[in-house]
Amino acid sequence: MSAHFIVEQREDNWQRACRLINFLLRENAKIRWATEPFRAEATNGKPMVLVRGTFLITDAGTISPLRLQAALERYGVPATAVADLRGFVGFLLNPVRIAIYGGGGAPFNHARIFAELGFQVEFISPQEIRAGKLDDYDLFAVPGGGGLAMAGQLNPLGEEGCRQIKSWVQRGGMYIGSCAGAFDAAIVAESFLEVCPQQRHLQLVNALIWNRGDTEWIGLESPGVGVIESRNLRPEHPIMFGLPERFNITHYNGPLFDVDTDFLPEASAATGLSAVAGYSADFTHSERFLRFSEGYEPQAALLGKASQEGRLNIVSGFNGLGRVVLFGSHPEFGYNLAMDDWGLPARMLANAAFWQAGQLSAARPPCVKRESGVAHAWPNGHGLEKIAEACGAIGDAVEQLHDLAQADSAWLAEGHAMSVFGLSGRMVWERGLEDFADLTGRIHRALERAKTLLQRAEALLSAGGRENDRRGQLLQDMVRAFEDALFYQTPEEWQQDFGYEGILQMLARTVAMLRRAMENNDISFEASTNPYAYFESSPYQLVVGSYLAANGVYLNCWQMLQVHLLRIEEQIFAIDCAMAD
Fold first, then answer.
1. What pairing do the DSSP bridges indicate for beta strands 174-178 and 208-209?
2. What integer pLDDT is reported at residue 467 of this predicted model?
3. How many angstroms separate the CA atoms of 541 and 535, rounded?
């Protein structure tokens, strides 16, 4: 058998290729990631021209042929045996541990994508960050914001937490921010620092917020919500490997950047990776949030101006020994209204993780984070019944909501129900309600899958001392971490602004929001220029108005199930492979 194999990341298989590579890395295979184009000759004599981002398995002897073949079949990705290489340059990869900020905002899309791409991912709280726990991780991702946007993420960190993050980056960590998470690490307006002075200690890259302004978000003026067109400025940069010259990406109120600054002496010059090139029919300019039917001039809108000027929506730079990547747009969001159908932009997240994986001097020992102080059901898996019960309550509430919005419902009028993704508020309401039934179906299928996986895990753990084996112990920890995810409760005393919560806690939040919407059906709302003025009281905002509404929280329950079930499934496969060797 050849000692070297090529795994290409093509448009139709890059997600599966990522999962394969991450599995093989955990099995101690030696894998390199090409940073330059190169040539190879297959063992059958066929010449190959390979692009940046191609994987090279350089020592297949570290993993048995049987296990390698099983992995290739499982992920449906071909590996080409090569007899000769010419011009290969790239990084030797190590498994990367990813922490996602759970102290505010919307972290679940990131978690699901990284998990579906095979990366090891955990949530980290602001309390843990202040205690120095970021040192357990290699990459730190900060998502879009919650109801309080950037302030809701920064306030729990305080100055101490912000300093901890910056110090960790300067020692070699990678910071990824999306939307609010990107704003948190950029150079911001003084008006924002007056409200959140701690942000001054989290500024990581020489990128200035271009669309700064004193709006409801203080320091940020929204360009709008929906799908925009981006232009790839640096196809040779590791973050942009595999991205075409132009691609669509979802933008959700977030920042755009200007890199013509050297404000931070400890940071390098910033590099613009992508610029706004236009917008699609699935985009609502902020100027139309509450005036969907009115005529307007797109080029005069904020995003129209950004497009004309080629303003940046993705930037990168260095701070000390670490790397920083700021996404003003959302690579973790899909193009659809629910934003769950992720696609090509997520490859930038995978690229970031592999770029960081190439900087690690050694692999960390595998481990699974456990939440302390969580009460569990016994035996394992009985908490799944509580999820099914909550889904039933949500279904009953949604049935009533279908008849709630009447023609004269003030809260669904154009001036109150904001447009997003090029849709009127009423269209968003109707489509958003339809999503609940689909999500319920997904969750029920996940519960059946969970029962099967937990039974399989129990059988493996009870077989012949397997519980004390390294792989078996890791599987046992994953099962217990899944129980943590079901029952974890963010303490009310922390007054957390969305962020990481347990699955049952999020289901309870979903039910409460739906019931509050029904109770507020007859309330009159004064007109406002703030599209989120009635974020906690308008039935529209409570049920479908944003990714923080009930349908978004319900989606997050499914995404969390997906994260944990994928992890358990992968570990069972690893044990099965080891037993078959």
1. unpaired
2. 46
3. 5
Euclidean distance between CA atoms 578 and 559, whole angstroms: 29
Is 376 within the bounds of a domain?
A: no
- Condensed to tens digits (0 to 9), the pLDDT of residues 290-314 reads 999 888 888 889 999 999 999 999 9
Encoding tokens for residue 535? Answer: 């974020």
Same domain for 419 and 540, yes or no, is yes
Q: Establish if 154 belongs to a structural domain.
A: yes
Query: What is the C-alpha to C-alpha distance for residues 134 and 116, in angstroms, rounded to an integer?
Result: 23
Span 429-473, pLDDT tens digits: 999 999 999 999 999 999 999 999 999 999 998 885 554 588 899
Same domain for 74 and 119?
Answer: no
Is there a single domain that holds both residue 58 and residue 111?
no
Pair (315, 400) in one structural domain? no
Q: Please state the domain count of the chain.
A: 3
Residue type, 406: Q
Backbone dihedral angles phi then psi of residue 209, each to the nearest 5 degrees:
-65, 120
Q: What pLDDT sits at residue 217? A: 65
Distance CA 174, CA 355 (A): 9
443 and 534 co-located in one domain: yes
Asked whether residue 86 falls in the same domain as residue 106, the answer is no
Question: How far is Cα 147 from Cα 532, in angstroms, rounded to an integer?
Answer: 9
Q: CA 298 to CA 281: how far, in whole Å?
A: 11
pLDDT at res. 517: 96
Residue 57's closest CA among 77, 356, 578, 355? 77
Give Cα separations from 251 to 285, 296, 307, 349, 526 (angstroms). Answer: 10, 20, 13, 16, 28
363 CB-near residues (< 8 Å, 6+ apart): 25, 28, 94, 95
pTM: 0.97
Please check whether residues 18 and 43 belong to one and the same domain: yes
Residue where the block lists tokens 């008849």: 403
Q: Beta-strand (E) ranges in 496-570?
A: 497-498
Q: Average model confidence (pLDDT) for the chain?
A: 94
66 plus 181 within the same structural domain: no
* Cα-Cα-Cα-Cα dihedral sign, residues 362, 365, 366, 371: negative
End-to-end CA separation in angstroms for the chain? 17
DSSP 22-64: HHHHHTT-EEEEESS-EEEEETTS-EEEE-TT-EEEEEGGGS-
Q: What integer is the mean pLDDT of 378-391?
A: 88
Structure tokens at 65: 């042929």
Q: Which domain holds residue 244?
A: 97-357
CATH number for the domain including 193? Answer: 3.40.50.880
Nearest CA to 358 among 79, 172, 169? 172
